[in-house]
Inverse folding.
């Protein structure tokens, strides 16, 4: 039982940092990448999004962070519950659900759209870039905003859980 208290703080901290990184990545697309691409012609838009998707799809670090945050948040919630910290556990479970929403949006909306964009033909094959962009841009951008909101809310919930965790740990000392 000694390892539970020792692990609870670092796991909760890792979940919080990872969630912040994911929220920041999604926000970067909301406020920087997508507005910049919106000013480009259709072919440039499609070509750049394909390249961005290719980099992220092949990034072990991104995959580890994306999945690791989900797992760390779930473990953190379980640890808080097992340590008898119901308030911290509730906030961590809330974060787990919110981050899960961002995962679900990614899996159900963003990834299928990314795959559609990738399968639509190589740039040399002269696909209809305007039609591709039309099917991709609005739903992908809307889904990304949903991911950003869910991740940011999860980050806030984890911040509250950290405060409660630290209060409980201090009270036991």
């Amino acid at each position: 039982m000694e390892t539970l208290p020792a692990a609870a703080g670092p796991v909760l901290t890792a979940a919080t940092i990872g969630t912040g990184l994911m929220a920041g990545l999604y926000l970067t697309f909301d406020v920087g990448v997508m507005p910049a691409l919106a000013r480009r012609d259709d072919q440039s838009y499609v070509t750049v999004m394909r390249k961005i998707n290719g980099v992220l799809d092949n990034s072990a670090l991104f995959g580890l962070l994306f999945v690791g945050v989900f797992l760390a948040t779930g473990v953190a919630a379980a640890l808080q519950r097992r340590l008898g910290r119901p308030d911290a556990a509730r906030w961590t479970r809330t974060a787990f659900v919110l981050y899960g929403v961002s995962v679900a949006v990614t899996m159900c909306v963003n990834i299928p759209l990314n795959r559609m964009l990738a399968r639509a033909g190589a740039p040399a094959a002269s696909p209809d870039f305007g039609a591709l962009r039309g099917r991709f841009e609005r739903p992908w951008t809307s889904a990304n905003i949903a991911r950003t909101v869910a991740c940011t809310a999860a980050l806030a919930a984890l911040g509250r859980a950290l405060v409660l965790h630290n209060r409980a740990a201090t009270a036991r000392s």
Q: What stands out?
A: The helical segments are 3-38, 42-57, 60-82, 86-119, 129-172. Residues 3-172 form one domain. The two ends are 16 Å apart (CA to CA).
